[in-house]
Amino acid sequence: MEQKFILDLASAKRVAAAAGLEATKNNWEVAIAIVDDSGYLMYLQRDKVQLGSIDVAIEKAKAALMYRRPTKYWEDVIANGRQGYLTMPGLFAVEGGIPLIYQDVTVGAIGVSGVKSTDDGIIAQAGASVL
């Protein structure tokens, strides 16, 4: 048997708070979604964001978790002509999703949506950096 680290609610809230602070600092209204290592939503934070951004934030987080890399990676790959990747299940190839890593273990992911995807990525990175 192996032991594993898990993302607890307090840590998920800490990640969301750091991301929210970055968003507030820039007057960006966004949805921030935190998923656990199985891809299920643990925590959602939003304020005055368009409703469509809620599901987008969740899907960005899921994609970052399932493929264990930032969604920006896939956005760049596809922009460079590798269109075949668009058929991958669960892929959301827009910046703003980042895996949450603790001691080299992927424990969850954060997804952000509501402003330009590059700004979503800045917010997500601010959240991910607290782990």
What would your notes on this structure say?
This protein is α+β, with helices and mostly antiparallel strands. It has a single domain, classed as Haem-degrading domain (Beta-Lactamase, 2-Layer Sandwich). The protein is 41% helix and 21% strand. A hairpin with a 4-residue loop joins strand 1 and strand 2. It starts with 8 loop residues before the first helix and ends with a helix. The model has no long low-confidence stretch (mean pLDDT 96).
Structural topology:
Layout: H1 9-25, E1 31-36, E2 41-46, H2 52-67, H3 71-79, E3 97-102, E4 105-113, H4 117-128
The gist of it:
This protein is α+β, with helices and mostly antiparallel strands and 131 residues long.
List keywords for this structure.
131 residues; alpha+beta; Beta-Lactamase; four-stranded antiparallel beta sheet; 4 helices; 4 strands; 41% helix; globular
- What is the molecular shape? globular
What is the structural class? alpha+beta
Which CATH-level-2 architecture?
2-Layer Sandwich
* Spatial ordering of strands, largest sheet: 2-1-4-3
Give the number of DSSP strands: 4
Strand content: 15-25%
Mean pLDDT: 96
From the structure provided, what is the oligomeric state, counting identical versus distinct chains?
single chain
CATH topology: Beta-Lactamase
CA-based gyration radius: 14 Å
Low-confidence stretches: none
Query: Which range best describes the helical content: under 10%, 10-25%, 25-40%, 40-55%, 55-70% or over 70%?
Result: 40-55%
| CATH hierarchy class name | Alpha Beta
What order do the SSEs take from the amino end to the carboxyl end, as H and E?
A: HEEHHEEH
Distance between the ends? 25 Å
- List the total number of helices: 4
Q: What is the total domain count?
A: 1
- What do we call the CATH homologous superfamily? Haem-degrading domain
